[in-house]
Amino acid sequence: MNYEGLNDTQIWKLISADDRKAFGYSFKLYAKALFRYGQKFTSARQVVEDAIQDVFLDLWNKRKTTNIDQSIKFYLFTAFRREIIRKLSRLRMQEPMDYFTPEHLLEASYMEGLIVQQGKNESNQKLYKAIRNLSERQREAVYLRYFANLTYKEISGMMGISVEALYNLIFKSIKVLKASLRESVQYQTK
């Protein structure tokens, strides 16, 4: 069966009906994105991988009682965020979101395309510097919106803030990025 043409609701119906291939497809579809997101919390690769495995195992075990109406991705990101924070708290190894480095953001194909167009090395450095000017919450919100492609409503639920507050947070983040990039261009032309 070709799962690529199915939406999340259809895939979830197959998973809840014990379709292991549909479950494997959802793992293949979302595991890398969850891994990249987990690296924003910690550099401990094994902790991130364990959290991903635990989330998917829990999803499979609860497939008969879990109801996913629209977005498997949102469900997974939300469950994963709780799981990674729980694991890190338990292990007392939580790193600050400062590890949420710009290098990880550049993995997204859209950003890579922009960087290639602007002249790789120089533009990378400007973007790295600009992203470092964002707060931890701003970096997380920008990552979830533009690189994980979650909706404002989904992100607001994950981060525990209102949609309006999230709009403001992302707006301010973009403003900081633009100002930082503009400043680096002006500095360079002097």
From TrEMBL:
<dbReference type="GO" id="GO:0016987">
    <property type="term" value="F:sigma factor activity"/>
</dbReference>
<dbReference type="GO" id="GO:0003677">
    <property type="term" value="F:DNA binding"/>
</dbReference>
<keyword id="KW-0731">Sigma factor</keyword>
<dbReference type="GO" id="GO:0006352">
    <property type="term" value="P:DNA-templated transcription initiation"/>
</dbReference>
<dbReference type="InterPro" id="IPR014284">
    <property type="entry name" value="RNA_pol_sigma-70_dom"/>
</dbReference>
<keyword id="KW-0805">Transcription regulation</keyword>
<dbReference type="InterPro" id="IPR013325">
    <property type="entry name" value="RNA_pol_sigma_r2"/>
</dbReference>
<feature type="domain" description="RNA polymerase sigma factor 70 region 4 type 2">
    <location>
        <begin position="125"/>
        <end position="175"/>
    </location>
</feature>
<dbReference type="InterPro" id="IPR036388">
    <property type="entry name" value="WH-like_DNA-bd_sf"/>
</dbReference>
<keyword id="KW-0804">Transcription</keyword>
<feature type="domain" description="RNA polymerase sigma-70 region 2">
    <location>
        <begin position="28"/>
        <end position="91"/>
    </location>
</feature>
<dbReference type="InterPro" id="IPR039425">
    <property type="entry name" value="RNA_pol_sigma-70-like"/>
</dbReference>
<dbReference type="InterPro" id="IPR013324">
    <property type="entry name" value="RNA_pol_sigma_r3/r4-like"/>
</dbReference>
<dbReference type="InterPro" id="IPR007627">
    <property type="entry name" value="RNA_pol_sigma70_r2"/>
</dbReference>
<protein>
    <submittedName>
        <fullName>Sigma-70 family RNA polymerase sigma factor</fullName>
    </submittedName>
</protein>
<comment type="similarity">
    <text>Belongs to the sigma-70 factor family. ECF subfamily.</text>
</comment>
<dbReference type="Pfam" id="PF08281">
    <property type="entry name" value="Sigma70_r4_2"/>
</dbReference>
<dbReference type="InterPro" id="IPR013249">
    <property type="entry name" value="RNA_pol_sigma70_r4_t2"/>
</dbReference>
<dbReference type="Pfam" id="PF04542">
    <property type="entry name" value="Sigma70_r2"/>
</dbReference>
